[in-house]
Design goal:
With 499 residues, this protein is α/β, with parallel strands linked by helices. Helices cover 33% and strands 18% of the residues. The protein contains 19 helices and 22 strands.
Length: 499
């Protein structure tokens, strides 16, 4: 019983609720921990007493690593206690307490593995870990000191286990002095540079780079580890599998993902119709990044549609065959979807910025957290067209690696609203005449198959079957004819013929 309450931090949760006088609390469990939800709620209820209502929430609408504020709002909850693996994305409306759990870690074997890496490399060691192993880091440090007290190993720390929404809305923050995407990963603090990723933070000297460190990851090969590998793709990374107590050096399957993502970026450049796929309704700033993506797509001369459908599946997205690429707005640890089973590729907001923003080239830096895009003035300058060089540069044909040739730019948004209205008025008669003279037998399927559709209406107008077409010329109806009357055994007209 004591081990169970220690794992789920019953006493800390009770102190948190009583200190803030919460009366309606939602306990959010992932599927793998749902079996313990009844025992946890009973233990909390026993300590809290009457007057406090607890609600168990499972089967979240989007991702279990994010705080489900939408589900909690159904019961007017004042706070959410999140159990299990968490992406630590800031919330929009509700405060959240995180209970990561306490997965077992053999500190002796882990310390030996760290010493093996120290003897085989000249780089400094930076230890990162899954949040479920945070409880064992102090024991690991003591084990390392007992073997060699002169070792200097940089350990990451857990940022916090509680999130207050009013302090974490990036859309409300003022612009900082960040000028590049690279600088968004760290923050200067005196002589050090502080990095924050996935709920962890660590400091390195400002003159050092992350490439100067060997990253020693303690934990499973999950989305949190993938986030580390893709973000620091130029670093040497080693993973210690705590379940098997062994080193796993092969991370090539994750590094190959970058090649796949670059291909999707090139494919997105040729798309004319883009779908913005909402993958979260609770992460702070998601509305801001959606508006930012809309503006970016519009500046690129493309058509965008916003879709909200919960967890995306290949069957759901197949209902939108006109959309050539989807931009998935979600937390950093669920942003990558394997689009091999999807009809159209699914990219991240960062990849959309690479594909649709003029003058943007991929330098090897990869960002999964869309909040880094929100807080980047350089990204806003590109979207808003504040770069003078890009404004003065004439429209040039772009070479498409997918089509194997040069394609013209689709951007047609350089005109002012007055010029657009004047052009629309002057061409209104011409457009109506052209529509009236359009041949019915024209092979319009070329729009769909050659990728020339500029919007959903263009795509559906090119389909062979259009359903009930209101423009179909209905022939003049003929006068009605009186049918047979009577029974099948003998209609009246049949009886008349016999007589």
């Amino acid at each position: 019983m004591e081990e169970f309450e220690s794992c789920y931090e019953i006493s800390r949760t009770v102190d948190f609720i009583q200190t803030r006088n919460y009366t309606k609390i939602v306990l959010q469990f992932p599927d793998e921990l749902l079996k313990d939800s009844a025992r946890v709620s009973k233990a909390l209820k026993r300590e809290l007493g009457k007057g406090v209502r607890l609600y168990v929430m499972a089967d979240t609408a989007y991702n279990s690593c994010c705080v489900d504020e939408v589900g909690a709002s159904y019961v007017a909850a004042e706070c959410v206690v999140h159990y299990g693996h968490a992406c630590m994305s800031p919330t929009s409306n509700l405060p959240a307490l995180f209970v990561f759990g306490k997965s077992p870690l053999n500190t002796s074997n882990c310390a030996e593995s760290i010493f093996q890496q120290i003897s085989s490399t000249q780089k400094a060691i930076l230890v990162l870990y899954g949040l479920e192993y945070a409880h064992a880091m102090e024991n690991l440090k003591e084990t390392l000191k007992s073997i060699n007290s002169d070792l200097k190993i940089n350990f990451a720390q857990v940022n916090h286990s509680f999130i207050e929404p009013s302090q974490n809305d990036p859309s409300k923050e003022e612009d900082n002095d960040t000028e590049t995407f690279e600088n968004n990963l760290c923050e200067k603090e005196g002589p050090d540079c502080k990095f924050c990723l996935g709920g962890l933070s660590w400091k390195i000297p400002i003159n050092n780079k992350m490439e100067d460190y060997l990253i020693f990851w303690i934990g499973r090969d999950n989305s949190a580890f993938s986030n580390v590998v893709l973000t620091f793709n130029n670093c040497e990374i080693v993973r210690f599998d705590a379940d098997k107590n062994e080193i796993a050096n092969d991370i090539s399957h994750l590094q190959r993902i970058l090649k796949r993502r670059y291909y999707l970026v090139e494919k997105a450049k040729d798309a004319n119709i883009v779908g913005i796929l909402v993958g979260t309704l609770g992460v702070a700033g998601y509305l801001h990044i959606i508006d930012q993506m809309k503006e970016l797509i519009e500046k690129a001369g493309k058509k965008s549609y916003t879709l909200v459908m919960g967890r995306p599946t290949s069957h759901k997205l197949a209902n939108f065959p006109e959309i050539e690429v989807f931009v998935y707005v979600s937390c950093a640890q669920t942003a990558l979807l394997d689009s091999k089973d999807f009809l159209s590729p699914v990219i991240t907001p960062f990849e959309a910025t690479l594909a649709f923003a003029k003058g943007r080239e991929w330098t090897g830096v990869y960002l999964l957290d869309f909040q880094d895009l929100i807080s980047s003035p350089q990204n806003n300058n590109i979207i808003n067209g504040n770069l003078e060089k890009e404004e003065e540069k004439e429209e040039e044909a772009r070479f498409s690696f997918i089509k194997g040739g040069y394609v013209e730019s689709n951007s047609n948004n350089n005109n002012t609203p007055q010029e657009e209205n004047r052009d629309d008025n002057s061409l209104a008669l011409a457009k109506s005449t052209e529509k009236a003279l359009t041949l019915k037998n024209q092979d319009s399927n070329m729009i769909m198959y050659n990728g020339f559709a500029k919007s959903g209406s263009d795509y559906f107008s090119a389909r062979s079957f259009r359903g009930l077409n209101p423009e179909f010329e209905i022939p003049v109806s003929e006068s009605y004819i009186v049918g047979r009357t009577g029974r099948a055994a003998g209609y009246k007209d049949e009886k008349n013929e016999e007589s």
